[in-house]
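Risk register update: the risk of archive-format incompatibility is retired. Evidence:
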Amino acid sequence: MKTSVNTSVVRWGACSFLWRPRPLAVGMALVVLALVLGVLLLGTGTLSLSPAEVLDSLLGTGSNPAAERIVQRVRLPRVLTAVFVGASLGMAGAIFQSISRNALGSPDVIGFTTGAASGAIALIVLGDAGPLWTSLAAVLSGMATAAVVLALSGGRRAAGGYRLVLVGIGVGATLSGLNTILLVMGDLDRAVAAQRWLAGSLSARTWAHVVPAALGFIAIVPIVLWCARRINLLELGDDAATQLGVNVPRTRLTMVMAAVALTAIATAAAGPIAFIALAAHQVARRLGLSPDVPLFTAAAMGAVLLLAADMLSQWAPVRLHLPIGLVTGLLGGVYLLWLLFRTRKG
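Archived output:
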């Protein structure tokens, strides 16, 4: 039975489920595009490699040992970090925008990215910590920031609409000031390292950055999947969702904590990255034309956007040395202006 242009009901005995081919096709196309961008990035750099040479280097069947070392030890960790960071931010943005019912409900807009960065900056400035401890500090400070924002916005029952966005912007601005104080008061070398980290970068990524980002994303996805149906019902409104059997406060709190963890893990791996969480959900929804929250399509879109931004940063003139965070920030500013203009026009 066909229910709409993009949705059909498939029945198998006593079971039935909705089949939406377009969102699935869009998701698969984004995965393929991410793979293509990844292969191109593995061949981009001082030593340029063709896609065939990249595949040979990955499989260890090439005739150039230097190319194998560069691809496997330098470029592959960078590409995988971009994939998991982009996917985490894309999924987190979809969750926040769905819960707040606001296109501006992105972790980098409502202060959660800044909150996660605060813990990492404190650890970098005050002590010498590796990627694992930096990730843990970012997760804990991100959770603490979320708790403060939720409390000030009226508790977990009021975690929606413009109030959450405005409170998050205020908390983020306060934390940004505290981060500046830490940089000013810290040791010069450590402050410079923290400032470089604040710019957001995929340079010098190693497997020590990839593993926490990958494990964190893989661990949180089942929680998101478990709540996926309920978050779709939340978009109908709290009253309608409650009548359909959804525990609204518990579902909202669970999803917020999952999204905060995704944001913190991504921030710890690559520093604060703007634009990805803000745009991935909106673009994925427009491409998929699905009434559901496109969690996994948004994750794939986030990975594609960050890989594309990384490619732009590497294609820039060498003397510019554009960090990935600056590239996404410039794109995010343009996108935000377009979004505000479109909202005003609508």
